[in-house]
From TrEMBL:
It comes from Amycolatopsis deserti. InterPro entries: HATPase_C_sf, HATPase_dom, His_kinase_dom, PAS, PAS-like_dom_sf, Sig_transdc_His_kin-like_C. The keyword Kinase applies. Keywords: Kinase, Transferase, Two-component regulatory system. SUPFAM superfamilies: ATPase domain of HSP90 chaperone/DNA topoisomerase II/histidine kinase (SSF55874), PYP-like sensor domain (PAS domain) (SSF55785). It catalyses: ATP + protein L-histidine = ADP + protein N-phospho-L-histidine. This is histidine kinase. Pfam families: HATPase_c, PAS_9. It comes from the Bacteria. PANTHER family: SENSOR HISTIDINE KINASE, TWO-COMPONENT SENSOR PPRA.
């Protein structure tokens, strides 16, 4: 290094002035005795002793009482600096008032005019240790947040690209931690207030925070996540933190409640229809009976005319007899309808599933004959006793059969067949209705309860309600070879 010849030379007093001005603490020890010869103001301030008070002190007077700061160790450390020229140590000094001061100390051998000395430079590292401990603690917190917590946390940039995710978040969204995470919309559908939205719309609302939902597709059912998205101002607005919680259970419960409400509404409509059917059956019964009586009298009068040789009376007799037969048939239908819907009270009883099917076959065949559909019954060889509400369970059978008949009636004649099967298996009485129609595009019990263009869904909704209330199972599934199969199972009654 070149020295400017015009610069004034520094003298001893200059170096002393610089040491006195330094915030680094300096102690000068005699190399032989290790006594303190001098201390700068910074050292005196930290140790709370004056230079005159420091000189007679020994190591144990101004060091921590812990074993690793024993006087013997301190003298050995200074001696090693004398022998090797320099030595460093982490040393705990003790101030006049007893405060322990952790320091990082460096001992350097120096040759003074009066002999060899050891200059010790040290500084208070207590605050540095606190900062270091805080950093270690923070790192531990971050590690726990990333790998040992159930919190679903994501860090994103303004483009919606994932930059960081906790282990739990990676598992939930199905991402691989060993690969670039990519955009968030790759893993699920963002929603606001229940409607699908784009990342740009969510970002616009994060001013600085907004609620957000994320629906993640899964093998069985979607995983529903809900939480907040916050724009982090400290990062210049380039980073966003998304904290989510799994609310799938709540969402599924809401869907179940909504479906139950739909079923209750359908059931209420059904009861109204039942009341109307009762009223119609009651009002039609008497006029039909009276018409039958009038036609019966006319038939007898026409018969007497025919016996007298009136040829025209024969035609009248034939017409009247035909009308009477049709009225009798209508009366039988109305009577059966009144018997069927006239017992809507919920009466639990043990009934043979085969008997319930037999009671329903009259109505089923009426509907099937009109549509040109063949009805095949495959009954269990013995009784299938189930505990149920007999009339309402019969309604389920009718709903299944009527739906199947309507389905195959629109098909080719060779496919116009439905099959009713009853059996006992696995502690349950099982009934299925098979058709050879167009099949099921979706599960009607999981969605709208109907797949018909003009269907109300009342029948299937009511069927679902009746069977599940009786601790049974109800389902619909595609049939092997084409068509569909509707079925229910009720627990077998103890014999």
């Amino acid at each position: 290094m070149q020295v400017d010849p015009r610069a004034p030379e520094l003298v001893t007093e200059d170096f002393v002035a610089m040491l006195n001005a330094s915030r680094m603490c300096v102690l000068v020890h005699d190399a032989a005795t290790k006594n303190i010869l001098w201390a700068n103001p910074a050292a005196c301030e930290m140790l709370e002793w004056s230079v005159a008070e420091l000189r007679p002190l020994k190591a144990h007077h101004m060091s921590s009482t812990a074993r690793q700061y024993d006087r013997v160790i301190g003298r050995a450390w200074l001696q090693e600096a004398v022998e090797k020229g320099t030595n460093s140590i982490e040393w705990h000094y003790r101030s006049r008032t007893g405060r322990v001061i952790p320091t990082e100390a460096i001992a350097i051998r120096v040759e003074l005019a009066q002999g060899t000395a050891v200059m010790v430079q040290f500084r208070d590292i207590e605050r540095e240790q606190e900062v270091e401990q805080e950093l270690r603690r923070t790192a531990s917190y971050m590690d726990a947040l990333a790998h040992r917590t159930s919190t679903i946390a994501l860090m994103l940039d303004r483009a919606g690209t994932l930059r960081f995710a906790t282990d739990t978040a990676l598992e939930v969204i199905g991402a691989d931690s060993g690969q670039p995470l990519g955009p968030l919309e790759r893993y699920g559908t963002l929603r606001l207030a229940g409607r699908p939205v784009s990342w740009a719309e969510v970002l616009e609302r994060a001013d600085p925070v907004t609620t957000v939902q994320l629906a993640v597709a899964a093998a069985e059912e979607p995983v529903w996540l809900e939480g907040s998205l916050e724009l982090l101002q400290e990062t210049g607005g380039d980073a966003l933190l998304m904290i989510l919680h799994d609310v799938s259970g709540r969402v599924r419960a809401d869907l179940r409640r909504e479906r139950e409400l739909q079923q209750e509404n359908y059931l209420a409509r059904y009861h109204a229809m039942g009341d109307m059917a009762m009223a119609i059956a009651h009002e039609l019964g008497q006029p039909l009976a009276a018409a039958g009586n009038f036609l019966g009298g006319a038939a007898r009068h026409a018969a007497s005319l025919a016996a007298a040789g009136e040829a025209a009376a024969k035609h009248v007799t034939f017409g009247i007899d035909s009308a009477v037969r049709q009225i009798d048939r209508a009366s039988a239908i109305v009577a059966a309808l009144r018997a069927f819907v006239g017992h809507l009270e919920h009466v639990r009883q043990v009934a043979d599933l085969g008997d319930i099917v037999t009671e329903c076959l009259y109505f089923v065949r009426l509907r099937a004959d009109a549509a040109g559909v063949e009805v095949v019954v495959r009954e269990h060889p013995g009784p299938v006793p189930v505990r149920c509400e007999r009339v309402l369970t019969g309604q389920v059978v009718l709903n299944f059969c009527f739906n199947a008949i309507d389905e195959v009636a629109a098909c080719d004649p060779e496919r116009r067949e439905i099959v009713l099967t009853t059996r006992a298996e696995g502690g349950e009485g099982v009934l299925t209705v098979d058709d050879r129609g167009r099949g099921l595009p979706r599960d009607p019990f999981a969605e709208s309860f109907t797949s018909k263009e003009h269907g109300s869904g009342i029948g299937l909704a009511l069927s679902h309600r009746i069977i599940t209330r009786q601790h049974g199972r109800i389902w619909a599934e595609p049939r092997e070879g084409g068509g569909s199969r509707f079925g229910f199972a009720l627990p077998l009654a103890e014999t």
